[in-house]
Amino acid sequence: MSNEPRDAITGSKEPQTKTREARIGTGGVDNRFNSKLREAFGSTPFILTKFDKFMNWVRGSSMFMLQFGIACCSIEMMHTYAVKHDLDRFGSGVPRASPRQADVMIVPGTIVSKFAPRMKRVYDQMPEPKFVVGMGSCTISGGPFQEGYNVIKGAEEVIPVDIHVPGCPPRPEALIYGVVKLQESIANGETSPVTVKPYELEQFGDLQRDELVEKLSEDIDEETLVMRYNWADSP
Amino acid sequence: MSSQEKAPEGDLPETHGVDYDALEELLGDRVIRRESHLNAEGFVIRPDEVAGALDLLRNDAGFDHLSMVTAQDYEDRYESIYHLTKYDDRTQEVSVIVPTDLENPTSESAASVYKTAEWHEREAYDLVGIDYENHPDLRRILLPETWQGHPLSSDYDQDKPQVVTLEEHVNPVAESQEDPDSDTMFLNIGPHHPATHGVLHVKTVLDGEQVADVEPDIGYLHRCEEQMCQQGTYRHQIMPYPDRWDYSSAGLLNEWAYARVAEDLNDIEVPEYAQIIRTMSAELCRIAAHMLAVGTFCLDIYGDFTAIFMYAMRDREKTQNILEDLTGQRMMFNYFRLGGVVWDLPEPRDEFFEKIRDFMDDLPGTLEEYHDLITGNEIFQKRTIGTGVIDAETAKQYGCTGPVARASGIDYDLRRDDPYGYYDELDWDVVTEDGCDNFARLLVRMREVEESAKIIKQCVDLLEDWPEDERNIQSNVPRTLKPDADTEVYRAVEGAKGELGIYVRSDGTDKPGRFKIRSPCFNNLHSLEAMAEGEYVPDLVAALGSLDVILGEVDR
Prior knowledge:
- The complex is a heterodimer.
- Chain A contains 9 helices and 7 strands.
- Chain A is α/β, with parallel strands linked by helices.
- Chain A has 2 domains: 134 residues, 3-Layer(aba) Sandwich (Rossmann fold); 32 residues, no CATH class.
- Chain B folds into 2 domains: 125 residues, NADH:ubiquinone oxidoreductase Nqo5 subunit (Beta Polymerase, domain 2); 291 residues, Cytochrome-c3 Hydrogenase, chain B, CATH 1.10.645.
- At the A-B interface, helix 5, helix 6, helix 9 and strand 7 of A face strand 8, helix 4 and helix 7 of B.
């Protein structure tokens, strides 16, 4: 490169039009907004729809995901967000670090007893309407760790789940399919989350008094939030 | 050459030049009796003499690395085993066995001699229920504080209900959290936080901008890996689990840890051809794992999904494609079998080799690109050089291994120091750096990618020229493996994060009696306090990122 000024500075003072011409042609009319759809509307560019239907469509078309990594599946989830798979192509690839800004929570991994109350709290912090995608076998049943003494037998024991994506871990393609299915059902206003015998966060004082509660009552305040696991009843 | 170190006549363990008689003399009347494990001799020590005995072994006999503490219960006693070795010579090993009675399982803590024992003993207390006297802080580490019972002891009833609390954490330094005059502030980082690489909770106390006290609170991903392995049969049922310890695509490295220990326990030979395949595929895994480490570390430093993260993901996709061709899986490979691997390289072999070679040829250019973006970046240098410093002596105290130790100038790599697989036949170097800081740890990982590439290239050359009728991928292994009762062995391999060891005690059945995992991340994470205290908050995050902990492996 020489130190000479560029042609654009020393040459003609006419405006540069190369980019514009490439985009809208030499006709001079920008038809970027005049899509085929617009043409179909003709001279009355209005449509009549139900507000609910419109809102559902909007909701399904732009979803913010909670940036939420738990276990092995979160690695595949990162791949889903990253190059090659690029979940953003489907209008749902903006990971938000704060639950207050998120619409969808992908639960990517095994949930254990110590983490379940935290996950419940994070879920509660998300604003309505909120949706959950269970990723991998652990969120279905505990997966390979189902027999573990510390493992919750599926995300549905703690929070409602809209879509399950099976696999250990599911491929990024599978997760994309699951998310797109969720978007589809949201746009159709169809989601019906399922919860199985949920473990709730409750105050320690509200628990039924039994041997275990008596024993712990010295260590735990009445007002402390607790989650009680009845392992014997787990599926 | 093969991972098999055959036991000499009479089933005596291979001594590797350790003079056990001299050690016995050194320990004097603290020794009750001697036991033989497959990897080393063990000295049975009285429970009130632990610190004294370990101190002698450490300072007078040079066993400066407490690799792991295993706790287990028998019908008549509890037992803690301290697996000792040396940073200078990994093949020299000795075990210190401390039995305690059933009614009152109390033994002296080793935390005064080895810092790393602090966490190991907390875990032993948590899961098995042994009390350690003089331990500075004996609390549960993996399970919630309110848990009842010790799940790996034999009298534990898994069906009993448990209550777990969701509490605000109390500032351990300030008098009261509401105290307006208090100088310190308590800050929870995690368990749901983008910078913690999973579900880690770091209790941090800040004095202004500086970190006054830091305590990692782990166990949010404790999914009972040891219990799962104890319920599986040796032959096939255990191998899928190692994939899920260090899940940063490092599956084959972990599988090798189990393969190595089970092959030693059952005296299985591995054909040379299979060893080369293992070496090649394991190093591909190391590249994938280090790429993830580099990508997420930069994510922590720059704070967003930037180009480096995407580049790292792109290169991981390439390795994952190759590994998928080989194993059929992107992450959870389940490819190793005892005595070899499950199937041969995919046909057409030329195409497969071509694919690996293409990747290897691109790698130097890719790494150059990384260096442009990362190590040459002034902001990055400012954030990482001279922060998160840990010197070699401290790192040894914490039992650091892998890139964390090598970045502090500790020349310790099991692939060379305790050779297994095909590593000692190949030409490669152990990477060390003297920086001791976050930057050095990143550099070590990036240079190790180059070394791994060197190894892979040599393996590909060997595999290509291997005669067609000698492609033996598996030796004959009995359908059911039942090692003799009370055979004990501890073996380790160099995982992506460091020394990944497994202790197995057989009980005469086809399932292990005790299966204990030594996780490198667990020890490396313990050293966070040494790196972060006194530094600024952002440096804490940088140090955590540079440790490259995978919580699945920390909590197991």
